Amino acid sequence: MGMLQLWMEKEGVSSFDALGKELRHRYPGLEWPSARSLGVKLGQLDKGAATWWAKRIDFTNKLAELLKCDPRELGVHSAESAHLPYYFEDFPELPPLDLSREGPCDLGCLVGKQDLDEKHLAPWFGRTTPGQTLVTTVNGVSWLYFPPGTGRDLYWARLNALSPFECVSTTALSTLSERLQKPSPICINLNRDNGHRDLLVLSSRNPECPILICAPFDLPSRPAAGWKEVLEWDYQLDTLEERNLRTLTNSAFSAFDGGANRYRFVLYRDWRTRLITWILNRLRTHLDTRLGPAQLEAWLDGFRNQDVFDTPRSIVAM
Question: pTM of the entire structure?
Answer without folding.
Answer: 0.69
